[in-house]
Amino acid sequence: MKKLIRIFQANNLFIKIFLVMVVSVIAVSIMITYNSIRMSTNLFLDTFSITNSKIMDQITERFNLFTNSIVSASLEVDTNGTIKQLLQVDHETASEQSPYYYHMTYEMERIFAEVDPNDANMIILSNQQDVFNMNYIKWPVDGELLANHDIIDRVEKSDTDIVYQFEQSEVTNGVPMVIASKALKLRSDEIYGYLFFSLTEPDLKKFYESYTSAGNNVLLMTPKGEIISSNQEELIGDSSLELLSYAEGVKGESLEYRNINVFGQEFVFLSQYIPSMDIYLVNLIDQEVVADNVINASDILLIAIAIVSLAVLVAFLILRKMTVSISQLVRQISDMARYQFNKPLKEAGGYETRKIAKAFNYMLNELQDYVQILMNTQDKQRKAELEALQHQINPHFIYNTLASIKFMIRQEKKETASNTIDSFISLLQNSLSNVDETITVKQELENLKSYVQINQARYGERIKVNYLISPDCIDLLIPKLVIQPFIENAFFHAFTKKKTGFIQILIANREDNLICEIIDNGDGMISDQLDNKTIKTKEKRQLFSGIGVKNVHERIQLLYGKDYGVEIESEPFQGTKVLIKLPIRN
What we know:
- This protein is α+β, with helices and mostly antiparallel strands.
- It has helices at residues 2-10, 12-79, 81-87, 94-112, 143-147, 150-157, 201-205, 241-249, 287-292, 297-334, 351-389, 395-410, 414-433, 441-459, 484-493, 549-560; strands at 121-126, 131-133, 163-167, 177-185, 191-200, 216-221, 227-230, 258-262, 265-274, 279-286, 438-440, 463-469, 477-479, 501-510, 513-520, 530-531, 534-535, 565-571, 575-583.
- The longest helix is centred in the N-terminal third of the chain and has 68 residues, at 12-79.
- The chain is flat and about 100 Å long.
- The model is unreliable at 532-546 (pLDDT under 50).
């Protein structure tokens, strides 16, 4: 007895895991087998009912989109003054008919472009039996034959504005098609023409054909019980009042399947009424297909027994090999000094144990790296917050600006002094009162214009500034003072050799990014001053904001990530181009 206890204690981990696994595998296998046998006969029906209900909704939506496009096109035809005028006038001579056909075709092509799908056709028939056909291949109809056909009579007698008809006669050249017809009337109810939209049965079938399969059939049926389209082509043209009664019985109800017997066969039945076309969408699932997909209980039982036996055998062999080295690994981890994360484990034992030890050691290294990265990130964030606090106007800028205004007043440049004071006030308001981290492009532009006006008033207008701003970017948000440091840099460093030039500011939405470009034709910079398209030289505080151009790049990346920031291109004596890439923020 004691020997058994010692064996159990030595293999405690193995026995526990093995018993849990065996019990779990057997329990899961029993439950799966039981539920598979119990639910096999209903599973297929439930799956098809849920899936096909959604499919029926998708097919109905496609039909509704088609009818909506027809309604939209018919309204455009009805309200088109050119078509209405052309159809009411007789065009007897060739010189009259040529512009007549040209203008009619032009107006119809514009309207027909909105009809979906493209396989549809659009025809207008005048009272003089002139036919304007947008897709002649789909319906090569003769005007005289169409004018004297029953289609016209049914349109004129119908109470609805647009009449949907299924036709397969000499007027359609024997091709089955659905025709949406509309009489074009004046306010006096006088008919001046007829509008037709046609869709052949093969094109109509494209609405639902991709959802059909063997035993899963779709039918379109008129309120008279006539089948006008189906993936079972032998049913097209037949009538089934029995199937119609089932369809009418579920009209207006939620989609739920039921078992019916039609055409001498058992089917699972789903139906949905499409009021826009006044047709019934019917889904018939062959019961024999359902029976063929029912799971064989004996096969399930044999497979379950085989899986359980194999799983138990494999579990015994693998667990026996793993647990010895795992137990050693657990003891090694337990012996580690508390919080000594730099002490690695010995990578010994089986494959799994070595992997665990290796992963554990890797985790320790990653943890140390993560702590270091976290500390660096927090340090950068603190620096960025500190820089953000420095986004206040430099006192020297205030002193110099006030001194310049005073000098202007003494020189009796009252208008210039007044404008400079206004710009200075605006700049103070936006910089001191607005404590938000981000502002709109419009606000940034106002700050820039105020800043530029002050500098031009102080130093003259030898440097011109142009603004090219896309209207859709005006209300987008950008970090505060993200452009101003580059304008200031251009003013005071780009034109030391060249005395005149221009600065262009471009802001636009490109590929879902907000792009700000500052371009000058000044002195430029040599390649040694650029590193990976960012400023390499020692950071300098700006005269106005206290934030340097390099800090702008770091601040953007801290706010939005490594995909955004500042790129600078420059050539000596050619100028400098600064590109600021920001995300779209409304």
